[in-house]
């Protein structure tokens, strides 16, 4: 199961254009909401650290470490959500689970925007925030498996890479949306206003976004593959577990490099290179533009030449370019234009892995366990290598004094991921 491609034996005539477009839209909008929020949390990490995790007289670095610990905790609940909601999705269908998880995500994110801070309720504040992050982690765990299952199961023959790439593309749009809102607020408000109440605005904006997503998912049809094959006999648990571990290894580089260059970078620029908040956000927007630009073309290319060469190219480029990229950002003599091109290129390289990644995971599991299997593989990888990225990088830099830790982290994880990707069958997408 982990090596061969999986084909859903559903006739092409069962997949008319309108339900396919609706499936792409309904799946994509939930991903947008989810990653918009996770991006916002990362972009405002320094503000959140000060408001929720730093008592009066406390260390800013320790507060940031606690903030990233809360960030990581939410990611570690993703596998729980993937197992819980994935099992439901494989038993009762993709549609009802996707409706439930977007409602949970929207509610938890909106509540973060109205939470009292440490100055108001003391030590209760970080606990309340962490609880809501846990709810987000659970819902996000069910989101990926359901959305990718819907997109790839509605895909016409030979287009799974293209359809699955829209999941990653809306991740990029969500991160860009979060960065854009953060940059707009940083421009329009003073630092005091931003720290006092401005940081709440991006979280409150999730409410209308989530309601739109909920409306779209209420109109979604169940996938043809699940209707025809969803209740077939499930493969042995040991076989599914092996595929989950292998899948997590194949996407670990994508997870780690993506969060290093697209989410952790603003805090790194501010705290290590002493860049202003606005400039750090601008750099992040540029990186995410590069990321978005290559995702869909990479997914389409993987349909034509196979998943393996595209994914291996992305992982290999991260290994080769991570340290030179960071050295460019550290060099005060490097022009802003060159730095912009460098971070744009870094985002583009991550996009080479993010484009074919969803289809690659989907093809590792049959319909009867697809929601659970691909959701768990992705969630485990993200829990360890994305959710912990900020915590690991910040703590290692604190202990070693090396400013190159982010580059080493991205390169090392992509090197290991490349070994797992080398086991992919080298045939065309289905």
Q: Could you describe the 3D structure shown?
A:
This protein is mainly α and 430 residues long. It has 20 helices and no strands. The chain is globular and about 55 Å long.
Task: Please supply descriptive tags for the structure shown above.
single chain, 430 residues, 20 helices
What's the helix-strand series? HHHHHHHHHHHHHHHHHHHH
The main β sheet shows up as: none
Q: Pairing-aware structural class of the strands and helices?
A: mainly alpha
Q: Which parts are unreliable, with pLDDT below 50 for 5 consecutive residues or more? A: 9-15
Instruction: Please indicate the percent range of residues in DSSP E strands (runs of 2 or more).
Output: under 5%
The shape is globular
Helix content: over 70%
Calculate Rg over CA atoms: 20 Å
Separation, N- and C-terminal Cα atoms: 15 Å
Number of strand elements: 0
Task: Write a compact overview of the structure shown.
The chain is mainly α and 430 residues long. It contains 20 helices and no strands. The model is unreliable at 9-15 (pLDDT under 50).
């Amino acid at each position: 199961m982990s090596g061969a491609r999986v084909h859903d034996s559903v006739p092409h005539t069962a997949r008319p254009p309108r339900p396919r477009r609706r499936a792409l839209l309904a799946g994509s909008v939930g991903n947008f909401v989810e990653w918009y929020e996770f991006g916002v949390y990362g972009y405002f990490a320094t503000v959140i650290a000060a408001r929720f995790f730093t008592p009066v007289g406390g260390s800013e670095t320790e507060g940031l470490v606690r903030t990233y610990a809360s960030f990581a905790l939410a990611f570690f609940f993703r596998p729980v959500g993937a197992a819980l909601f994935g099992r439901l999705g494989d038993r009762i269908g993709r549609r009802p689970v996707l409706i439930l998880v977007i409602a949970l995500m929207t509610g938890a994110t909106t509540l973060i925007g109205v939470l009292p801070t440490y100055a108001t309720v003391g030590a209760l504040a970080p606990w309340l925030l962490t609880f809501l992050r846990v709810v987000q982690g659970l819902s996000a765990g069910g989101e990926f498996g359901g959305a990718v299952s819907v997109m790839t199961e509605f895909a016409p023959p030979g287009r799974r890479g293209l359809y699955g790439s829209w999941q990653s593309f809306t991740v990029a749009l969500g991160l860009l949306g979060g960065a854009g809102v953060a940059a707009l607020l940083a421009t329009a408000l003073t630092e005091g206003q931003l720290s006092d109440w401005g940081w709440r605005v991006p979280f409150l904006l999730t409410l209308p976004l989530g309601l739109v997503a909920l409306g779209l998912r209420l109109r979604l049809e169940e996938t043809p593959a699940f209707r025809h094959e969803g209740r077939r006999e499930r493969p042995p648990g040991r076989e599914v577990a092996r595929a989950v571990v292998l899948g997590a290894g194949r996407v670990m580089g994508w997870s780690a490099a993506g969060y290093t260059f697209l989410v952790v970078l603003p805090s790194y620029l501010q705290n290590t290179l002493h860049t202003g908040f606005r400039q750090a956000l601008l750099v992040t927007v540029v990186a995410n533009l590069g990321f978005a630009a290559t995702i869909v073309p990479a997914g389409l290319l993987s349909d034509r030449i196979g998943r393996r060469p595209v994914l291996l190219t992305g992982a290999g480029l991260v290994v080769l370019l991570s340290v030179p990229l960071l050295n460019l950002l550290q060099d005060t003599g490097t022009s802003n234009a060159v730095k912009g091109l460098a971070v744009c290129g870094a985002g583009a390289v991550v996009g080479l892995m993010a484009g074919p990644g969803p289809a690659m995971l989907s093809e590792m599991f049959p319909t009867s366990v697809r929601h659970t299997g691909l959701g768990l593989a992705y969630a485990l990888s993200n829990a360890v290598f994305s959710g912990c990225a900020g915590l690991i990088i910040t703590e290692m830099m604190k202990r070693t004094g090396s400013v190159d830790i982010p580059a080493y982290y991205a390169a090392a994880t992509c090197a290991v991921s490349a070994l797992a990707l080398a086991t992919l069958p080298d045939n065309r997408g289905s």
